[in-house]
Design brief:
This protein is α/β, with parallel strands linked by helices. It contains four helices and eleven strands. Strands 1, 2, 6, 7, 8, 9, 10 and 11 form an eight-stranded mixed beta sheet that branches. α2 crosses α3. The protein is globular, with a radius of gyration of 17 Å. The C terminus is likely disordered.
């Protein structure tokens, strides 16, 4: 069984990180069930283990937190659904790469519930959407914007941290960093794409796609 937890309002980042680590330890010790925690944070930047100082463009704009997850700089803030996953990867084959691929597939399946085609790109982490509605880039190629980020950490084969999907954040807040170290590409959200989607709508889609088996490695089902 996986506990689904939704926090109302804005959750402080340090409090969330401490809670996740404690829950992951309890899962590893067999004292707690796996959990998926849905939160929103106040505006802030987090630095993953591969973050480069030059990618923090405006260090005084919002609080900056060092994170133990993989990856580089990310933004979290109101209007963004953050999904923390505390799951036993050891019981699911001890395959970290497959686990991350399943998280990506989960995001793509969730976006598909709103007729948004999320895609992966070699060399660019996260989930992307094509923007034929916008002028092409300087190279003449169709513009692509990032809509979701993924960054996890494992301890004793229990995951924590997770992913974020842009529902209706202030996209200007991303300007203080180079998101995930990727230049020359923008960010978007479901509402920016013209969809009247609420956070509650996204939460329903996340749970439906999870329980429908779109990420078999997470639910323990094969095929």
């Amino acid at each position: 069984m996986v506990d689904w937890i939704t926090s109302e309002g804005l959750t402080g980042y340090e409090d969330a990180a401490a809670w996740m680590e404690a829950r992951a330890d309890a899962i590893a010790q067999g004292r707690a069930s796996e959990a998926i925690w849905l939160v929103e944070h106040p505006p802030l930047y987090t630095a993953g283990t591969s973050a480069k100082p030059a990618d923090l463009v405006d260090p005084d704009r919002f609080p900056v937190f060092q994170s133990k997850r993989g990856g580089q700089y990310t933004y979290h803030g109101p209007g963004q659904r953050v999904v923390y996953v505390m799951l036993d990867v050891g019981r699911r084959g001890h395959d970290v790469r497959r686990f991350v691929q399943q998280l990506e597939a989960w995001v793509i399946a969730t976006l598909d519930q709103f007729n948004v085609r999320g895609e992966l790109r070699e060399g660019r982490v996260g989930v992307w959407v094509a923007r034929p509605d916008l002028p092409p880039g300087p190279d003449g190629a169709m513009r692509e914007d990032k809509i979701a980020a993924i960054g996890v950490r494992l301890r004793k084969w229990i995951s924590f941290h997770g992913l974020s999907i842009n529902v209706e954040p202030d996209l200007g807040h991303f300007d203080g960093i180079v998101p995930c170290g990727i230049r020359d590409h923008g960010v978007t959200s479901l509402v920016d794409l013209g969809l009247p989607v609420t956070m509650a709508d996204v939460d329903v889609a996340l749970r439906a796609t999870f329980e429908a088996g779109h990420i078999q490695a997470l639910t323990g089902r094969d095929g």
